[in-house]
Design a protein that fits this description.
heterodimer, A: 449 residues, alpha/beta, Rossmann fold, Ubiquitin-like (UB roll), 3 domains, five-stranded mixed β-sheet, four-stranded parallel β-sheet, 14% strand, B: 163 residues, alpha+beta, Arc Repressor Mutant, subunit A, Glutaredoxin, 7 helices
Chain lengths: 449, 163
């Protein structure tokens, strides 16, 4: 995919250059592993400090500052420390880590080994979803190549520090993207998320040892933080929303794809209409999912007024919302995994929710009753509504089920499955009521369930 | 259960990579399923021994993860993504074409044993939908025409390997 002029590529700088290959020779030719050498000439705590200064926030979903996460590590216990890369990319709409893994796997390996050194990890893992078999092979090959050059393994670059990197494949369960579920999965168990407290990975993670779990994109940023220095790096983007971010754009746009943009330097309108080429001719924006299918939906034409955290007032249409971490939160949703799904007026919004609900019902791990039963009921009701049996009370019933899940489960899958239903009913109640009046009528161009 | 010698070698080399034997559970199950096509009760008992767990622990894992299966399927495993972005680009409309061209119903195996068809949840290729996987290969921007071609290619290869 060629780069759009509004993009600012750091992570994907070389990914789509003609002739750029995923092998180590190509990576070295482009300056690869120079930052690993630079980091190993520093003290581990100095590297941690730079990451903290950079302000980079987690690119996986929660947006938690990586440097702070690292600071929470329990170093007093004396137990070994583990580093895990979360490459379970599974949130519907998200396909950014796929680009990094397939086109520039050594960048991830370098980012991981710098991070492993910084936190003094004893062993590191890349947990990659089963559905990326070539990605797993490429990473395995990258690891062999890096080991041959002594960039990982024993006594890395003569530093006295040793660390192995293991590629660990999942087996098609979305819940493994939840960090404690992922840890259980590496322990060879069902991926049942653990309750927090006490099981914060930084204290009681893998094998009950202090563990850091970071997203693929986050770990790649570490390479560039070392290259530029944390403070200089934090100047990219906007305060509190530093760096670039890769947005996965899909759905009803002319040019779906992945676009790396400086945080806060463009809006959702820029992404959809300018970079993404806009909607199909004659179509209107019906709904926007701003950060993966679990993020709360925004209705086309909505306006948002309020104050940002620093007190600055805002008055935004959907298109004016800045592409960063804080702004989607300010309008009651989230940037999540950076997956933007555009939905035009050609489809039935009830079917959109039915499609999303089928996903979360399939992926609930089954541990907590509200999520296991609730996600299934939300799926059953929305599917029934789409099969010609929608009832006037369905909207309220759905909302009440959603309300009984969020906040009542061990992990965030409860919120992830409840937020779509809660927000679709809040924003599109008229459409859900209309559905009951027009039972059996096809209300969209194509089926979504 | 007769695992190929190379599968056993692979499994033996996997276990010492991990700090705890049980952590090799998923990679061992991947290797067993690749070798056998599925994971039998006998295989679960064997994996339990290797990972120093009980057979019920292995069964718990096999039954939890959608990719692991307890019964054999067709020679090629087709997964059509049905999740939001692919659905918005028409994946449900392609289901009939896939059923017809590969000769199998959803969640069924074709009569010739060549294909098993299932829906997949989000394959993380949402910008190039609709997508499907056949075994390890990803097929993007599917159309009826493409599906016809892909099915024909698989059938031709199957006929060739028979001859």
């Amino acid at each position: 995919m060629t780069m759009h002029q509004k993009e600012h590529r750091v992570i994907l700088k070389h990914a789509d250059e003609p002739g750029y290959t995923p092998d180590i020779e190509c990576y070295l030719k482009h300056g690869g592993y120079a930052n690993l050498k630079k980091a190993f000439a520093m003290k581990p705590e100095e590297v941690c400090k730079e990451v903290e200064l950079s302000g980079i926030r987690g690119r996986g979903g929660a947006g938690f500052p990586a440097g702070m996460k690292w600071k929470f590590l329990d170093r007093k216990s004396g137990k070994p420390i583990y580093l895990i890369c979360n490459a379970d990319e599974s949130e519907p709409g998200t396909f950014k880590d796929r680009q990094i893994i397939h086109k520039d796997p050594h960048q991830l390996v370098e980012g991981m080994m710098i991070s492993a050194y910084a936190i003094q990890a004893k062993l590191a893992f890349i947990y990659i979803r089963e559905e990326m078999p070539y990605g797993a092979k490429l990473l395995q090959k990258a690891i062999e190549e890096a080991r041959a050059k002594n960039f990982l393994g024993d006594n890395i670059l003569g530093s006295g520090y040793s660390c192995e990197l293991i590629v660990h494949r999942g087996a098609a369960a979305y819940i493994c993207g939840e960090e404690t579920g992922l840890i259980e999965s590496i322990e060879g168990k069902r991926a049942y998320p653990r309750i927090k407290p006490p099981y914060f990975p930084a204290a009681l993670g893998l094998y009950q040892c202090p563990t850091i779990v970071n997203n693929v994109e986050t770990l790649c940023h570490v390479v560039h933080v070392v290259e530029n220095g944390g403070e200089a790096y934090s100047k990219l983007g906007t305060p509190g929303n530093s760096g670039t971010r890769i947005w996965s754009l899909s759905g009803h746009v002319q040019n779906p794809g992945y676009y790396e943009i400086e945080c806060g330097k463009a809006t959702y309108g820029d992404l959809i209409y300018d970079i993404g080429g806009g909607l199909r001719p004659g179509r209107k924006l019906q709904a926007l999912i701003p950060g993966g299918s679990s993020s709360k939906v925004i209705r086309g034409g909505e306006r948002f007024q309020g104050k940002l955290r620093d007190g600055t007032p805002f008055d935004w249409g959907v298109e004016d919302i800045p592409l960063d971490f804080d702004s989607p939160m300010a309008v009651g949703s989230m940037s999540g995994s950076g997956a933007v799904v555009v939905i035009d007026d050609s489809v039935d919004i009830v079917e959109v929710l039915a499609n999303i609900n089928a996903f979360y019902a399939h992926e609930s791990c089954g541990q907590c009753t509200p999520c296991r039963e609730g996600s299934l009921w939300m799926k059953k009701i929305t599917t029934r509504m789409c099969k010609g049996d929608a009832r006037p009370g369905d909207a309220d019933l759905l909302a009440s089920i959603g309300d009984q899940i969020a906040g009542r489960t061990i992990c965030a899958h409860g919120e992830a499955c409840a937020w779509p239903t809660q927000s679709f009913i809040a924003k599109f109640k008229d459409k859900f009521l209309e559905k009951a009046q027009r039972n059996g009528e096809r209300m969209g161009d194509i089926p979504l369930i | 259960m007769n695992l190929k010698p190379e599968t056993i070698t692979e499994i033996e080399s996997l276990i010492p990579k991990y700090p705890q034997k049980r952590s090799a559970m998923l990679p061992i199950l991947h290797a067993v399923q690749k070798d056998q096509g599925y994971i039998s009760k006998e295989a679960m008992e064997w994996v339990a021994e290797k990972t120093e767990t009980r057979p019920i622990d292995v069964y718990g894992v096999v039954s939890f993860y959608p990719f692991f299966r307890e019964h054999p399927i067709g020679k090629h495993y087709i997964r059509l993504c049905r999740t939001l972005s692919c659905a918005l680009s028409g994946s449900y409309n392609l289901l009939e074409a896939i059923k017809r061209e590969f000769g199998c119903d959803l969640n069924k195996t074709s009569d010739d044993g060549l294909f098993t068809l299932e829906f997949a949840e989000c394959l993380a290729s949402c910008g190039s939908g609709p997508v499907m996987m056949i075994d390890d290969d990803l097929y993007e921007r599917l159309t009826e025409e493409k599906i016809k071609q892909i099915a024909a290619d698989y059938r031709a290869r199957a006929a060739q390997s028979k001859a």
